[in-house]
Amino acid sequence: MSKRVLVTAALPYANGAVHLGHMLEFIQTDVYVRARKQAGDDCVFMWADDAHGTPIETRARREGITPEALVARAYDEHRRDFDEFSIGYDIFHTTHSEENRRHAEAIFTAMEARGDVVSRDVEQLYCPHDQMFLPDRFVKGTCPKCESPDQYGDNCEKCGSTYAPTELHEPRCVVCGTAPVLRSSEHLFVPLSRHEEFLRQWLRDRAEGGHTVLQDSVRNYVMRWVDDGLRDWDISRDAPYFGFAIPGHPGKFFYVWFDAPIGYIAATDKWCADRHAGPGQCFDAYWKTTPDDTEIVHVIGKDIVYFHCLFWPAMLHAAGYTIPSRVHVHGWLTINGEKMSKSRGTFVLARTYLDHLPAEYLRYYFAAKLGGNQEDIDLSFDDFVARINADLVNKAANLASRSVKFITSRLGGTVAALPEDAAPLVARAQERLAQASGLYREFESSKAVRLAMEVAEDFNLYLTEGAPWKLAATDPGRAHAICSAGVYATQVVAAMLKPVLPGWAAAVERFLRLPTPLSFESGQPLPHGHAIGEYETLAERIKPAAIEAILEASKETMGNEANAAAAAAAAEGPAEAAAVPDYEVPALEPTVAFDRFTPIDLRVARVLACETVEGSKKLLRFTLDLGPLGQRTVFSGIARSFSEPAALVGKHVMVVANLAPRKMPFGTSEGMVLVAGDEPSLTLPLLDPQTSRPGERIT
Predict the structure, then answer these.
(1) Tens digits of residue pLDDT in 557-611
(2) Which range among 106-110, 208-212, 289-293, 639-643 shows the weakest confidence by mean pLDDT?
(3) Residue 662's closest CA among 687, 637, 691, 686?
(4) CA separation (Å) from 210 to 16, 31, 43, 372?
(5) Could you tell me if 78 and 34 are in contact, meaning their C-beta atoms sit under 8 angstroms apart?
(6) Do 377 and 333 contact (CB within 8 A), yes or no?
(7) Whether the model pTM is above 0.85
(8) Distance from C-alpha of 32 to C-alpha of 24, rounded to nearest angstrom
(9) At what angle do helices 398-410 and 476-497 cross, to 10 degrees?
(10) H or E segment and range at residue 570
């Protein structure tokens, strides 16, 4: 048994339904937790709904219900979807709870006593139409750093910059579209610079086993914020605000990002109290100890790194709570190559998916794509169908079906000793099973899943070449042994996939009548004469109609939401804001003949380095890996659109590889990186590193 391990996923916001972008993170977290438990670790999954903030209050007002009723409804809907996706949390609580209030007040009081809270008057954006101060997410405008339009008041989704809402250019209230005005109000701040020494040390630490608190690229990203000077953190909001009142400061409420992560702590408190936890399971053993005794692991998206990697550890350290051992950051989900967006209708609700397909198919697909980095993941429905049908149906389920069915129908229903010529395959299967636990522990689920499929491929080929169905009449003993090797592989594959496909593993445990649950120790064959049961269907091919139904239902769902939003906007403010298009595109260039396009050789390239060019305000210098084609240096005039060029390292981009070299004052450019958009809001079309390799041709 390991030391105690407490794992969290980011809290879903109780302002609406969960979608597949949320499920990416929750599935990744669940796979990690299940793998830790399967390895024998004392691991718990503490979780909750994020139930405070102005958006919840505003939506409740629009629906004519109380905020409490809204978050209660969302809680029930969220929990239903999570349960059907087999998310194995130990507790799913809410931040609108007495446990959360108590710990939020305790942390604030401790920080205030240390001198970590100061007050000062600030000018805020105020909507004269709605008569309220506008929180970060209730104001949109043009990013002050990269000039990208339609960005929220706290950070830019294009360049990743953070800023105050008052820094936005041409701001507008997202509720009614009115241009806000500036008004003064007293606010409470945490001077984060007081915690700089602690944060620098925490960011440098290495946890047991050699992994860092953050992935290297994330740590470097966060360190740039530290090096640029830490900003004071505004932790208070003015009424009206749905949340906890700040003790000793009438009329002030905790900003949702102050009490939301405390939901991890509150959930643990509730879980311990409900179980009357004894020694080893009490609250203090998790949150009042050190990372040497308790491992706290947070799984988050890259959009909330600032909060979890600066504010959160500083809060915990100042108030005497256990600081995180590890923060794992994943990328965003795109669908069919498009960013998920309600306004553009490019996302699918979890409920919509569940209405048409089994949850385990999506669990498998995400696990097969996710690794230890924070690359974005694309859910291409064509690839989704192909991967499920190829891996789960044609390989893993087919292996189980033909070996188990043949034994139960033709060979007496018991397994035989494995044949000697299968020994090399058995050894390789045992080696891969032994590797799986460590891969899951490092969030490398795609590699663990790949190993499981390699076992299935090996034994499927063995069964095909052995053809037991041809030997049943002439050499039943040989046929029995070959099929028993298939049963063995079914057991090993299910053990390797159990963190990803718990339902699949449970079915295999039933029909193989295993004496103990599958684990990473399930590498030994069943004894000769062990009786097995009738095969249970593990997977069936996905039909195109199911995907079509999901996409059509998503369009209807988004259409209804868009209509409701338009009606609300019409009732609350100017309708002109809703008529503004999301973006403009230039007119199409003249048509070109196909033979003029074919000479252009587009290739996949991995960014090894990207940096600004001294003496040029426009150029970035890329060092690119084109696999067997070698490395290239490419200069690209896109610096104004990418304020953090180092963040591009590791990305897979598209390059014109046969462009004639061009000598420049700073060196020779050996190709062209493809970008989209117009300055200063260019974007790089990125390729999935799981399915693209440097040097591959793009056709």
Answers:
(1) 544 443 333 333 333 332 222 222 233 344 455 555 545 566 788 999 999 999 9
(2) 208-212
(3) 637
(4) 39, 21, 19, 14
(5) no
(6) yes
(7) no
(8) 12
(9) 140
(10) helix 544-572
Query: Which one-letter DSSP state was computed for residue 14?
Result: T
For the cut 80, the answer to whether the pLDDT of residue 128 exceeds it is yes
CB 225 within 8 A of CB 305: no
Architecture of the CATH domain 380-511? Orthogonal Bundle (1.10)
Place of tokens 């001198």: 115
Three-state secondary structure string covering 391-423: HHHHHHHHHHHHHHHHHHHHCCCECCCCCHHHH
If DSSP codes are grouped into helix, strand and coil, which group holds residue 379?
strand
Asked if CATH classification 3.40.50.12780 holds for the domain at 594-698, the reply, yes or no, is no
Are both 4-105+255-331 and 115-195+215-252 of the same fold?
A: no
Task: Tell the CATH superfamily of the 4-105+255-331 domain.
Answer: HUPs (3.40.50.620)
Query: In the structure, how many helices (H) and strands (E) does the chain have?
Result: 22, 26
Measured CA to CA in angstroms, residue 25 lies from 10, 22, 331, 367, 377 at distances of: 8, 6, 9, 10, 11
- 99 Cβ contact list (under 8 Å, min separation 6): 93, 265, 266, 267, 269, 270
Tell me the CATH number of domain 115-195+215-252, given options 3.40.50.2300, 2.170.220.10, 2.102.10.10, 1.10.575.10: 2.170.220.10
